[in-house]
Amino acid sequence: MYIVIAGCGRVGSSLARQLAGEGHEVCVIDENPEALSLLGDGFPGQFVIGQAIDWETLREARLSDADAYVTSTDGDNTNIVSAEIAREHFGVRCCVARVFDPLRADLFEQTGIRTVCPTKDAQDLLHDAVRSCSRS
Question: Rounded to two decimals, what is the model's pTM?
Answer without folding.
Answer: 0.91
